[in-house]
Each structure stands twice: as structure tokens, then as C-alpha cells.
């Protein structure tokens, strides 16, 4: 847990702030400006609650029942009933960081003063986050339109002191007990507040921000893995020259090429084969085109980041309180912008893993690995080396290709055809999380294999960065030898990838972006 408090106000949160609260349990505080904005807009809602004209979500039902007038004495029940009925998720429990992320982003929208909730509702959400009380939410229940309804409803239910939550220690407890233990008074919702708590793209947006953080590390790690594979396969570094890369000036390509050059700097393996007359006119695409593929992933991430930044600066609710005091229905809750880039990132992630698997496969084929034993086996025939590690990669990459099929092109009408086009952005976010986890394993296996190949090239030596990375792997995985239980070795290097430890080691020695 970080001790740096994240202020939640009328302005947009940064990516780093979202990750700090969602993943690292950073504490939060509501700014005075946000409390004033919420109190101001709430006064407008209170006035409309007494208006004789119908106002959606204030004095009417919801969705297809928007034309049903609700008498004043039933309006508090209307909001509580909305939350209870919409907390209808099912399936596996979603991750704590996702729940915290979506709660933070809903709170951020409340803090803009554009939703009309009372300040005490926002303060309850802040208290839940700071007490690390995490509502239990099933994986299914959001269509990415009209907000991430079921997931957000479970959070609102917890704020009401109902449903199940995980406490700060991870224990499953009734929400009422967790709130009581933390000294938090459950909220009693009033006009519009239940609606304001469930209308938003916060779940899919939280997963997008977390995915971008993971991919930022993963694509840099893939650059490192590609460079180690080039060393292990006695490839050339000439194709990564800055002037050649500049002939096609994509920003991501330039960054990945620079990273590969940095890792290959001073490589004895590359220098030896350059000096003795490199016999291959060109390396295979998976080596030579690494900057082009990895760079395209980076450029896709940059596009997704722009969408995420815009969404973080948005106040998504329906109806919304405008700056000039109107309360207007709108369609800003539709998740298409976020859903599209989530799907786009799944495509890029699958291809990043695909080229990594292709580089690994080259190590294992005696006809293509330039003097190494088949499958990098210690005693080929008796030993199988890394043969099945590549099978594992292949199985994951196949799964990633399936996960790259877009979710956002699908739509199933709901709410008696009132909600007749939905984004499925939540589904896009869920499959992207699985895709990134798979790609991390694929890149880890490439690193494990490249390190083995480099050791088998001894006395030829890699560059200083490559040597340090192989050494870091060797702290957890023994040097090449007879076959051993391989799964723990893979798991160890996956840990180096997902923790960022290997990337951090490289950054101690050179600039890696």
C-alpha cells in the first residue's frame, strides 16, 4: 500500500492515480471543490423532486419503465429497489483491483457534481475504498451500455450495507458487518442516487487503464526478449540502425528499435559474427521485424490511452446535471469508444505473443538455430529440452487469437427493446485481461529459452545487458543441463516478467522505454 493520498475532485484522475488506488490500495480524499460541486447540484435535484412534471430517475421508473410516475413516498424505495434488482451478476468473482478501480472511477464522476448525488454518498464510497472493503461481484452482468450496471450495482449495494464484501484481510463477510467494523454508516439512497451509482463505463475503463499499465511493461519486456533471441540466434543488429528505422517514422517502431539496440550494445555474439563474415543476407521476419510489430503494439496503446484519458475526463451519467443547471437525458453511458480500443488492444496483444512464439520456435529447430542442439536439449534423444515449452506457448497463442475476435461488434437488445444497441465493452475488457496474462507467459518462455541458448553459445558472450538479464534468470533457474521439471522454471520467469523485475534490471544498465 502506498502512503501517497490521491485527491478525487472535479478534474480527471491520471492513469498513475487509478493504478495506485486500484492495485496498490492508495488512500483517497475528496477535495473541497468536489464537495461544493456535489452540494450545489444536489440542490437542483431536490427542487425537481417536488416538480409536478416527470423527471427521469427522479420521479419516474427506469429504462422501459421511464413513463411510469413514482409517488414521492415511494421514491427512496425506488432507488434501493433499483440497486437490489440490478445487483444480479453471476460467475467467478472478479479481481479486487478491478472492483477498486471501478469504484474509484464512479466516485470520480460523482465528484464532478454532474450526477446530483449528496456529498455523503461520495464520502461513503471514499470510506469503503480507504477501509479496503471490496464488494463481491460476479464476472457476468454488464453489457457495457447504460453503464456497467450489475457490477456497479453491487458496489452501491455494499454502500447500503447489503450483500457480501471482502474485508481488508480478504475474508468474505456480510457488508453490514464490514461497514460496522470500519465505523461506516450505510447510505439511505434518495432521489436519483441509485441511478447515479450504476450509470457509467467505470468497470471497462478501469480494466483499460490497468491493461495499459501492464502492456507498457510487457511491450518493453518483449523488446528485451527479442534482443536476447537475436543474440541467442546469432542474428544481426544492423537492421535496427536508427537511420533505417527513421525511413518509416512510426513512433512506436522507433522506441522498440532503440530498446533492441540498447540491449544489443556491446554484444560479443553479434560482433563475432559480424567480424567473421555474416553468411545470412537477412534474418527471419520474427527477428528483423520485431520493431515494426512491437512498435505497432505501442502505437495501438497510444491510441487506446487517448481514449482512456478522454473517458477519465468525462462525467458519465443519465440523466446528467449540466453546468447551467439543467437535468438532461443523454447517451454518454454507451461504451463503444472504450469497447473498441479494448478489442484493438486484444488484437495487438495476440500478435505480440505470436511473434514471440515464432522466435522461440527458431531456437528449437536444428535447421534454423545456427549450431545449437535440437530443442536446446542437453543430450538430444535422451533429453527433450524446451520442446514442450514451445507447445505451451503455441496453446496460449492459439487462445489469444480467439480472444482477439472483437466483442464490441456484438449486441443483444435488452430492457424490452429500449436498450436496443449495447457495446459489450465489459466483455472486451475481460478477455483483454486474459490475453495479457497469456502474453506475459509467452514472453517469459521466450526469455527462458533465449537465456538457455545464450549460455549454450559460451564462450561467446552477450552484451552487458544481456549478460545481466541471463544472470537474473539464473538466480531462479539453473544453467543448461539434463532435463528437469520445467514448469517451475517457467513459473519463475513469468514472475520476473509480471513483477517487472527483469525490466527493472535492464533499466539499471541502459535506457529502456
TrEMBL record:
Write the Enzyme Commission number(s) for this entry: 4.3.1.3
**Family assignment?**
Belongs to the PAL/histidase family.
Question: Does the keyword ATP-binding feature in the UniProt annotation?
Answer: no
On the tree of life, the source organism's domain of life is Bacteria
The gene name reads hutH_2
Q: Which UniProt keywords apply?
A: Histidine metabolism, Lyase
Where would you find this protein in the cell?
Cytoplasm
Broad enzyme group? lyase
UniProt keyword Lyase present: yes
**PROSITE patterns reported in the protein's UniProt record:** PAL_HISTIDASE
Q: What name does the UniProt record give this protein?
A: Histidine ammonia-lyase
State the organism named in the record: Nocardioides luteus
Q: Spell out the reaction equation it catalyses.
A: L-histidine = trans-urocanate + NH4(+)
Q: Which Pfam families match?
A: Lyase_aromatic (PF00221)
List the pathway annotation. Amino-acid degradation; L-histidine degradation into L-glutamate; N-formimidoyl-L-glutamate from L-histidine: step 1/3
List, alphabetically, the SUPFAM superfamilies matched. L-aspartase-like
